[in-house]
Amino acid sequence: GESVGLHLPTLSVQEGDNSIINCAYSNSASDYFIWYKQESGKGPQFIIDIRSNMDKRQGQRVTVLLNKTVKHLSLQIAATQPGDSAVYFCAENIWDGNTGKLIFGQGTTLQVKP
Amino acid sequence: DVKVTQSSRYLVKRTGEKVFLECVQDMDHENMFWYRQDPGLGLRLIYFSYDVKMKEKGDIPEGYSVSREKKERFSLILESASTNQTSMYLCASSFSGRREAFFGQGTRLTVV
């Protein structure tokens, strides 16, 4: 089946630095991508999304970049804070006839050092 | 705020037992999903439903079934639990035509 993968299982950054989390996807027909954040003991929470007809989208302290040529997605977090420590998943939306289903990558654990 | 509620945070069941995991959402979402989450494997889709009484297999449906008798409730059933079904189970829901899915807090199931 299709798969969405993240390049690194763990990323460690200093508080205040910028973080970049990468993701490679394999389905060129995917039309929508989401980044989720999962804190310990909780379900994944939506951070930011991007449609396939865009190459950049900005939120509060976060930016998602999409490069369809190489099927690459990245999440940039500005001025990383301790509260950003979590597992981050990228997901791609694949249409299955009647509805879209999200296919997730393996996740990257972001550790923020004080 | 959207609320997706899973009936249990932790469950311990014996091999061979029939197990029911319940999920309820309060936002009138058409779509509901069940994922399992394992270390190093991310979230894998087990089953999903886009309407009442409708169900579709995900990527790993073997050993599982689902039931959606009401729009707000989506149940995952392990007909005969096995130790390899020990995992974190996550339920999610979304509006039809919208891709963003909202997740419950998860049920950590241990089969002994």
Ends apart, CA distance between termini of chain B: 37 Å
Return the string of H and E elements of chain A: EEEEEEEEEEE
| Classification by helices and strands of chain B | mainly beta
Total strands of chain B: 11
Number of strands of chain A: 11
Largest interface: A-B, 27 and 28 residues
Low-confidence regions of chain B: none
What is the mean predicted local confidence, pLDDT of chain B? 93
Q: What is the helical fraction of chain B, as a range of percent?
A: under 10%
Query: Structural class from helices and strands of chain A?
Result: mainly beta
The H/E string of chain B reads EEEEEEEEEEE
Helix fraction of chain A, binned, reads: under 10%
Overall pLDDT confidence of chain A: 89
Radius of gyration of chain A, in angstroms, nearest whole number: 14 Å
- What is the subunit arrangement here? heterodimer
Low-confidence runs of chain A: none
Describe this structure in words.
The complex is a heterodimer of chains A (114) and B (112). By secondary structure, chain A is mainly β. Helix content of chain A is 0%, strand content 57%. In chain A, strands 2, 4, 5, 9, 10 and 11 form a six-stranded mixed β-sheet that branches. In chain A, strands 1-3-8-7-6 form a five-stranded antiparallel β-sheet, with no helix packed on it. In chain A, strand 6 (56-58) and strand 7 form a beta hairpin. In chain B, strands 2, 4, 5, 6, 9, 10 and 11 form a seven-stranded mixed β-sheet that branches. In chain B, strands 1-3-8-7 form a four-stranded antiparallel β-sheet, with no helix packed on it. The model of chain B has no long low-confidence stretch (mean pLDDT 93). Chain B contains no helices and eleven strands. Chain B starts with a strand and ends with a strand. In chain B, a hairpin with a 2-residue loop joins strand 7 and strand 8. By secondary structure, chain B is mainly β. At the A-B interface, strand 4, strand 5, strand 9 and strand 10 of A face strand 4, strand 5 and strand 10 of B.
